[in-house]
Specification:
- It comes from Streptomyces rubrogriseus.
- This protein is α+β, with helices and mostly antiparallel strands.
- It contains seven helices and twelve strands.
- Helix 1 runs antiparallel to helix 3, helix 4 packs parallel to helix 5 and helix 5 runs parallel beside helix 6.
- It folds into two domains: 92 residues; 211 residues, Endonuclease, Chain A, CATH 3.30.870.
């Protein structure tokens, strides 16, 4: 109805303006008409008043439309803000729960959230070499905002590759049995030393940038690296396994002298691959069985940690191994 009224007023205004124009044009060239209109100032004033009223009404309508658009825009912004808040709340409620499958990216994200909160944070990892945990964590620590009260402790437990292992190892071509791969073990030892040195370098950078203090300790225990275990304090645990095996030529045979036995040409390297493996997340705040499993896994890690030997700082052969 309002739109119809607006169109009618616009049409009327155009008609009046055209009428005034034609009357004036005729009066200019047709003398009887001009004489008849001469001195009719009231008629001219009335016509101008009508035109002015219609124009004024049109201006009011345009202003009202602009105000309505502004109100609609404000209401739209308010609706977007409210919906954004509801989405954030829903996302928080649907966050990871105990027993959920997770990835290394999710683990690193939760580690980042923990250290960003400030205060004291302990991060523990039972790794192969630390490649998929230490390196992303190092980048998180170096990007932290300044907070001199922050204190981060990182504990990394790795296999003792200074001693012979079966897995990873060499698969003998003669009988398909596993034997030690000393060259590959030496390569892995160098990688671990490199990651440890990189974290210790990050410790100095954090102090220089006033990001807080960082303590780093690597320990080694004589086990095969099948288990992946990570803990954020004593509250959250991620666990998984190295579930992929890769058989390839042994490219590290010249890295160390081989003991008596089959030569390197008689076997291939059997390696464990953990990149891309899914993890399971457990939290003591999610009730049972999360709390029980967190206590059990933290106790498991603590027992191995106490029994492991400390890896002294040393330079990695040929670089950091990153």
């Amino acid at each position: 109805m309002a739109a119809l009224r607006g169109r009618a007023e616009t049409t009327l205004t155009k008609g009046l303006l055209l009428a005034v124009f034609f009357v004036g044009l005729v009066a200019q060239f047709v003398k009887p008409v001009g004489d008849a209109l001469e001195g009719k100032t009231y008629i001219g004033g009335a016509l101008l008043s009508i035109v002015g009223y219609v124009l004024y009404a049109e201006v009011l309508r345009l202003n009202a439309a602009r105000d309505a658009d502004g109100e609609q825009t404000r209401q739209l912004h308010e609706a977007v803000r409210r919906l954004s808040g509801e989405v954030q709340e829903l996302t928080a409620r649907l966050g990871p729960q105990s027993g959920d499958a997770a990835t290394m990216d999710r683990l690193i994200e939760e580690c980042a959230q923990a250290v960003l909160r400030g205060g004291e944070t302990q991060l523990s990892g039972m790794c192969f070499t630390g490649e998929t945990f230490v390196e992303p964590l190092r980048r998180v620590l170096e990007d932290l905002p300044p907070d001199p009260s922050r204190s981060v402790s990182v504990r990394i437990l790795v296999p003792d590759f200074t001693r012979p292992t079966g897995v990873p190892g060499l698969v003998r071509a003669a009988d398909g049995k596993l034997t030690d791969a000393p060259g590959f073990r030496r390569h892995l030892t160098g990688k671990i030393a490199g990651y440890a040195q990189d974290l210790r370098t990050t410790r100095g950078r954090m102090l220089h940038k006033n990001q807080g203090t960082l303590s780093v300790e690597f320990r080694a225990v004589h086990i095969s690296p099948f288990l992946k275990l990570y803990a954020i304090g004593d509250d959250v645990v991620y666990e998984g396994i190295y579930d992929t095996l890769e058989v390839r030529p042994d490219a590290y045979v010249t890295s160390a002298p081989l003991p008596q036995g089959p030569g390197p040409e008689e076997g291939q390297l059997l390696d464990l691959i953990g990149r891309g493996s899914l993890l399971t997340r457990w939290s003591r705040y999610d009730g049972e069985p999360g709390g029980v499993l967190v206590d059990r896994r933290c106790g498991f890690f603590g027992t191995l940690w106490d029994a492991a030997r400390r890896l002294e700082p040393e330079a990695a052969p040929g670089g950091s191994g990153a």
